[in-house]
């Protein structure tokens, strides 16, 4: 009896210690600068146009000048952190006629900055922004297209996150990414995913930032705290066997991208409770797509983080005044204090993931026709312990949890398996957690 009581007390004490927040995360939030984001958005907008098919020779105008400037900023950051970033271009040739928006052969060039992890260097967390911009005609690559919000804001946020996080060492690697060809067909992401798969990179997830600077919606709502997290419910690479299993065991909204969205929601509410993360149960906006999709298509976890209230008069529009409305994606419509907040959301979640151990690869659940839920999972090197999560089947978030220590199986007595969904996360000594893993096996 004394032994059982001691074990119970150890679990309670461990649960309390792992529930604490980490001061470094608050420091990261404070270090993000709205002024630096404003400077970078202004610079990107001042390239005139960043259309994928625009000028690549000029030093002051066009996508060529923009991507060289982005690389130079990553190089400066790397120089300031003792060459902690590996900065490079990655390109693919897209041939004329590939789709109606490719009217000439073009090299789609991405800018990649990799901050290598110390413990899991082949495990990558990605933050991306899009380099390119467009006006009303997607094939107009000569007229001014400043793209201040879409998507200089996301690109500037990615550069700023690199400035802040480069001051720290992480267990896992972080990639700061400028993607091209988004407006012409998501070509930058497609090309990079092929390379990552060929090189065997372990991609934990991508945070695609596409428009993080507008607070005044066309719906009349003004909010500097709301933001959306788009995520698909299950991987596009799901097998027929997995699909059939879902009919009996559940998991319709528990794919890896949805777990990544829940992770961002939880971390944000813990460290930035003033923010209102809105989890949208959809791959992207209705019938539309963003640059996390190529990663989703390849089976990687990926989400889109963006403003909650869009203004369509400022997206994909020729700059003009019409019927008293000023159209165009120009600097005056970007709220840099808001962009700072969403940049901080990205930064703290990447840091939390990069300081966390990998998630268990195998999670099995049992307890069919029993009064208790049972679990087994694969051991994770570097994990100090594990947490069991559960929630009502109708709840969008993991509402209940129990830290169970450094074990690989556990029984939740008195909790009936039929009434809840469950998952397991691994936990570091500092209390940082992996994303929750939904059970992928059954035992009796």
Provide structural commentary:
This is M28 family peptidase. Keywords: Hydrolase, Metalloprotease, Protease, Secreted, Signal. Its main location: secreted. It comes from Costertonia aggregata. The structure is a single chain. The protein starts with a helix and ends with a strand. The protein has two domains: 2-20 and 359-442, Immunoglobulin-like (Sandwich), CATH 2.60.40; 32-355, 3-Layer(aba) Sandwich (Aminopeptidase), CATH 3.40.630. It has an eight-stranded mixed sheet with strand order 1-2-4-3-5-8-6-7, sandwiched between helices. Strands 15-12-11-17 form a four-stranded mixed sheet, with no helix packed on it. The chain contains eleven helices and 17 strands. By secondary structure, the protein is of the alpha/beta class. Mean pLDDT is 95; it is low at 1-19.
Lay out the secondary structure:
Blueprint: H1 2-18, H2 23-31, H3 34-45, H4 63-80, E1 85-94, E2 106-115, E3 120-130, H5 148-165, E4 172-179, H6 182-185, H7 187-199, E5 202-209, E6 226-230, H8 240-249, H9 256-271, E7 276-280, H10 293-297, E8 302-307, E9 320-322, E10 325-327, H11 336-355, E11 363-366, E12 372-377, E13 385-392, E14 400-405, E15 409-413, E16 420-427, E17 441-442
Parallel strand pairs: 3-4, 3-5, 5-8, 6-7, 11-17
Antiparallel strand pairs: 1-2, 2-4, 6-8, 9-10, 11-12, 12-15, 13-14, 13-16
Helix pairs in contact: 2-11, 3-5, 3-11, 5-11, 9-11
Between the first and last Cα atoms, what is the distance in angstroms? 28 Å
Q: Please trace the helix and strand order, writing H or E for each element.
A: HHHHEEEHEHHEEHHEHEEEHEEEEEEE
What percent of the residues sit in helical stretches (DSSP H or I)?
25-40%
The largest sheet has its strands arranged as 1-2-4-3-5-8-6-7
What would you call the shape?
globular
* Rg value: 23 Å
């Amino acid at each position: 009896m004394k032994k059982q009581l001691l074990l119970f007390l150890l679990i309670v004490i461990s649960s309390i210690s792992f529930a604490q927040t980490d001061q470094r995360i608050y420091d990261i939030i404070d270090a993000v600068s709205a002024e630096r984001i404003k400077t970078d958005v202004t610079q990107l907008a001042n390239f005139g146009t960043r259309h994928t098919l625009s000028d690549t020779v000029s030093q002051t105008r066009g996508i060529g000048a923009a991507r060289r400037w982005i690389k130079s900023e990553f190089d400066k950051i790397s120089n300031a952190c003792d060459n902690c970033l590996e900065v490079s271009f990655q390109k693919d040739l897209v041939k004329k006629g590939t789709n109606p928006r490719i009217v000439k052969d073009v090299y789609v060039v991405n800018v990649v900055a990799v901050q290598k992890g110390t413990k899991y260097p082949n495990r990558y967390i990605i933050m991306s922004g899009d380099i390119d911009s467009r006006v009303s005609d997607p094939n107009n690559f000569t007229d001014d297209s400043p793209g201040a919000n879409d998507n200089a804001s996301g690109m500037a946020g990615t550069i700023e996150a690199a400035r802040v996080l480069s001051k720290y060492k992480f267990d896992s690697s972080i990639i700061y990414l400028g993607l091209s060809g988004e407006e012409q067909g998501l070509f930058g992401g497609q090309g990079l995913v092929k390379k990552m798969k060929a090189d065997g990179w372990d991609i934990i997830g991508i945070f695609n930032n596409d428009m993080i600077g507008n607070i005044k919606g066309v719906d009349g709502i003004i909010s500097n705290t709301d933001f959306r997290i788009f995520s698909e419910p299950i991987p596009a690479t799901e097998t027929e066997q997995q699909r059939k299993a879902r009919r009996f065991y559940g998991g319709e909204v528990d794919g890896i991208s949805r777990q990544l969205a829940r992770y961002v929601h939880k971390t944000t509410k813990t460290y930035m409770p003033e923010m209102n993360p809105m989890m949208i149960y959809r791959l992207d906006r209705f019938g539309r797509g963003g640059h996390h999709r190529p990663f989703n298509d390849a089976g990687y976890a990926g989400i889109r983080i963006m403003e909650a209230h869009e203004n369509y008069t400022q997206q994909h529009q020729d700059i003009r005044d019409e019927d008293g409305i000023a159209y165009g994606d120009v600097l005056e419509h970007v709220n840099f204090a808001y962009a700072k907040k969403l940049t901080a959301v990205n930064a703290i979640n990447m840091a939390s993931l990069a300081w966390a151990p990998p998630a268990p690869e195998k999670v099995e659940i049992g307890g069919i026709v029993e009064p208790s839920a049972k679990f087994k999972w694969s051991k994770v090197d570097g994990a100090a312990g594990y947490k069991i999560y559960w929630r009502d089947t109708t709840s969008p978030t993991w509402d209940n949890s129990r830290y169970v220590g450094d074990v690989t199986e556990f029984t939740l007595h008195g909790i009936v398996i039929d009434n809840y969904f469950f998952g397991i996360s691994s936990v570091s000594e500092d209390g940082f957690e992996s994303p929750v893993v939904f059970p992928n096996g059954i035992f009796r």
